[in-house]
Each structure stands twice: as structure tokens, then as C-alpha cells.
Amino acid sequence: MRRNRRAEPYEGVGARYTPHPSSYTLACYTLHPSSYTLLLPGPVCHYHLGMAEITADAMQQFGNALSIYREWENAWLTPVLRSVHEHRFPEARTALAAAVAALPTADLPPEVREACGYLLAYMHCRVDWHPGSRGYTRQDYAAMLERFEPPADSAFAEGVRRMYLAFIRSNGTSDGFDALTRAEIDALLAGLPERLSAPAWQQLARWAYEHGDAEILERAYEIFLEFPGQTMGQAKWQRVALMHGLMRGTATREDVRAYLALLQLRPQLREFRNEFLPRAIDLGLVDADLERELAEKEEEVGMG
Fold first, then answer.
1. CA-CA distance, 265 to 17, in Å (whole number)?
2. CB of 81 within 8 A of CB of 126?
3. CB-CB neighbours of 285 under 10 Å
4. At what angle do helices 233-248 and 253-262 cross, to 10 degrees?
5. Are 47 and 7 within 8 A, CB to CB?
6. Any alpha helices (H) in the chain, and if so which ranges?
7. Which residue ranges make up each domain of the chain?
8. What dihedral do alpha carbons 115, 119, 122, 126 form, nearest 10°?
9. Are 280 and 294 in contact (CB under 8 A)?
10. In the predicted structure, residue 44 carries a pLDDT above the cut 80
11. What angle is formed at CA 105 by the lines to CA 100 and CA 111, rounded to 5 degrees?
12. Is 212 helix (H, G, I), strand (E, B) or coil?
């Protein structure tokens, strides 16, 4: 599934931009979406990423901002996600409320604080929109889009905004509230470094599976191989590999069984039963042993 990688330039941290019909103008350079080329007015840097050149200072600023952002995310939102995964939604809401209260006085650079605001809004979706929680309506979805549609004030936060907007819109499309297109996905992700956009690819992979877009699935596979995250890294790329095989009709029974063995969470098993199992049955990949393994796994994680 491996293909040639396309480098993705980054809009320098802290720069403010002015929307223009054909480009974004920043304090340090101009990004032309049609070519992904960065034009640098200052000294040329030492980084060459495909067609793009990025200043060393911009790369360092981005890395610093992302590190601070991830540290705050891990400190405050790990308890939220753990509670969601275990279907303890009242505890998840309590932990999320604590994070919301802590953000205004947190010792964070302005662009990171702004980015964390988008993170908290996204986490409200994770807590409240879950099928085992309150769920969500078309009105809830529209209100969340209003929160995410206006551009951010800083370039780092703008990247986070677009990343989570891609996640939310692909989720809304799967649930029948939206009709996200491939062109819109490309526009949302244009210029974002893959290590920043990686969280969105969990949901974008599902969009690709539902829309038969092999290229998006292949890109998701690459990203999860390189940026597996801190938890369940193998399950992430193996999920995408299974999607690709089921969509193309090349998956084997062992592919299905190997992914099933990795599953630890109720949402993973619900997706497996609802989305993957029917295609596996159509391909003749499901036998009595696999059905038994699925039943045992569901009992193991409390879905029995």
C-alpha cells in the first residue's frame, strides 16, 4: 500500500494571515494552495520538503507549540478519553469541565491556548455525541460547525481548527448530517504537517471506506505507520489496512482475525460488527471460529 509521500508545508507558528482568493498571506511567507510552495522572503533555510522550503525558526516554533499543546492535552484530557472509552460519561463530563476551567489561567503561549480551545470543543463532541451518551441532533451539529468555521487568530491554532473540523465533518457525514467531499478534505488538510493532522485520520479513514476512496485510505495508512500515537498504534494502521482489503476484495480471513485480536474498546468492536463484518461475510471470510472469537472479544470488553 506504500506510495510516494507528498511533503506538507507548515504555516509558521504565530504568524497572522489575511484570507485572499488565491493564497494566504502571512507575516513570514505566502502559501499558494495550488502548488504547496512556500515563498520565503528572508534567508533560505536548511529544510527541503519536496516542493516546500520552511524556515528553521518556523519549524522550531511549530515543534515547540506542538509539544506544549500535547503536554497540556495529555495532562487534562487523558482522564476524559479513558472515561469515554469505558462508557463512564458522567465522569468524563466532570473531567472535561475541570479542563475547561483550567484553560483560562494555564501558563500557555497565546497560540497554544487558542488551539486548546478547539481541542476542548472537540472533546465535548467525544463526550456528548457518543451513542452511549446523549447522542446529538442536526441542531447540535450545526452549532458545533459554527464554533469551528471562523478562522483562528494564530497559524498554529488554525491548523488545529482545520484538523478537528475535518474530523467533525467526516463524522457528521457518516451520521447523515453532512456531505463532506474529497475536495473539501483536501482543502482542510492542505499545508498541515502530518504529525499535527494525524488525529483526524481515524475518522477520515472511515469516510474513505464509506466512499470507496483508496487514495485517502492509503494516505491514512502511511500516517499511522509514521505517527501511531501513544496508544493502540498497531490497531490504527491495521484497521486501515483491513478497510483497504475489504474495499478492494483482497482481505483474507487472517487479516480479519488479526485485527479483531487487537481490539480493546467498545467503539472498535461496534465498528467491526457494523461496518467490517458485513463485507467480510460477503467475501466469504467469516467462519464459525471467527464468530466465536468475536463473541468472546465482545464479552471481554463488556458488550455481551
1. 41
2. yes
3. 20
4. 150
5. no
6. 56-85, 89-102, 110-128, 138-148, 155-174, 182-189, 194-197, 201-211, 214-226, 233-248, 253-262, 266-271, 277-282, 288-300
7. 56-234, 251-304
8. 170
9. no
10. no
11. 85
12. coil
Q: What is the pLDDT of residues 109-145, one digit of tens each?
A: 999 999 999 999 999 999 999 888 999 999 999 999 9
The pLDDT of residue 41 is above 80: no
Distance CA 82, CA 72 (A): 16
Q: Are 118 and 148 in contact (CB under 8 A)?
A: yes
190-227 per-position pLDDT tens digit = 988 888 888 899 999 999 999 999 999 999 999 998 88
Retrieve residue 251's grid coordinates. Answer: 482481505
Q: Which three cell numbers stand for residue 37?
A: 510552495
Contact 240, 211 (CB under 8 A): no
The Cα–Cα gap between 275 and 210 comes to 9
Question: Whose CA is closest to 121, among 190, 83, 167, 65?
Answer: 167
The three-class DSSP label of residue 25 is strand
